[in-house]
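Reproducibility note. Readers wishing to regenerate the assembly model reported in the main text can use the exact inputs given here. Chain order matters: entities are listed in the order in which they were concatenated for prediction.
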Amino acid sequence: MTNASALLDALAEPTRRVIVERLSTGPAAVTELARDLPISRSAVSQHLQVLKAAGLVSDRAEGTKRVYRVNPEALAIIRAYFDSFWQRSLAAFEQAATGHTATASEEPA
Amino acid sequence: MTNASALLDALAEPTRRVIVERLSTGPAAVTELARDLPISRSAVSQHLQVLKAAGLVSDRAEGTKRVYRVNPEALAIIRAYFDSFWQRSLAAFEQAATGHTATASEEPA
DNA sequence: CGCATCCGTTAGTCGTAGCTTGCGTTAGTT
DNA sequence: AACTAACGCAAGCTACGACTAACGGATGCG
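Running the prediction on these inputs yields the following structure tokens for the assembly.
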């Protein structure tokens, strides 16, 4: 679950990104989510299963409804993933520009 | 190409993520990339076309070779995307915590 | 108690992304 | 000029994933 690749595999689907974006503004139920999407409720449910298996969302039974919400920790992992990713690419970019290896003279803030 | 969705569509493919990870450590040519991958050189080339179309990488002819490198700006966009994303989810999470009870339900089993 | 709502699951169809193969092109080497 | 290495491109095949449809299980309400 601490693997960013598994999380990104789940976020590969555009529809799932929309769902997570929607859930990032607050919890929602399945039918409620499906109402704003051009697909069936069943499809939304299946997407939620994938997101849940990846650890991106969690669900909670509330009466007959089932409320889903995002897992901030999962987004934090992805965020950290792309952060180090970006820094590495910047280092390589700097190196290519200056022509010699960078000596880690960056300010750590 | 300032759209994060287009960038994420390109990074949906696991192989393409490996390629970009590899390129984030420094530029490389097609055959050089294909050497470490279980797919053909042509497949790698096709992946690079997708990444290039998304603006994630750029290429430069160097003799008979074609050197690819990552575009740090593209990674910065994705980074910013997940950053705001994460902050929104945190805000929603905090609101849910303070709005209801502090020691409320946690595990849905 | 029926009845409606909300949801997960399964089976099954279908589009498409990813891969290989083969070919043509360009650049470098002798 | 001949040969080789490094690519891109196009056609064709295959497998996977997204979707729908139909079902059954809970929960809530009259």
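We highlight two features of this model. Residues 29-31, 41-42, 45-46, 49, 63-66 of chain A lie near DNA strand C (CB under 10 Å from a C1'). The first strand of chain A starts at residue 28 and ends at 29.
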